[in-house]
Amino acid sequence: MGLSLFVSFIGNIQSILQGLNRRNTNMLTRYNEVEQWSRHCRLPKKLRRRILEAEIQNRITTRGMKEEELMKNMPEDIQRDLTRHWFFSVIKKVTI
Asked: 38 by DSSP, 3-state: which?
């Protein structure tokens, strides 16, 4: 039993590390795609940098989740509740 718990622990750690590695690989792939696209369009260097910074900020904000895709896969009642929640959270931030 001590040995079984240790093997389970190591397996869980390995799964976590693989997930992090996959996420980092996806992030780097996305950044490379954005960079290649901006070079293909022959954008100025400053504009390319701003686009990449916006992509990084978007990634940080959403933590890699695509909210639109997540919403499409949810049942209608959950979509409605999420929309209501986001709407009210925005309303609370508005100063009168």
From this structure: helix
- pLDDT band with cut points at 50, 70 and 90 for residue 64: low
d(C-alpha 30, C-alpha 23), whole Å: 11
Distance linking the first and last C-alpha atoms of the chain:
62
Contact 64, 23 (CB under 8 A): yes
Amino acid at 60: I
| Secondary structure of the chain as H, E, C letters | CHHHHHHHHHHHHHHHHHHHHHHHHHHHHHHHHHHHHHHHCCCCHHHHHHHHHHHHHHHHHHCCCCHHHHHHCCCHHHHHHHHHHHHHHHHHHCCC
Quick: pLDDT tens for 72-90.
Answer: 777 888 888 888 887 777 7
pLDDT tens, residue by residue, 5-29: 999 999 889 888 888 888 888 888 8
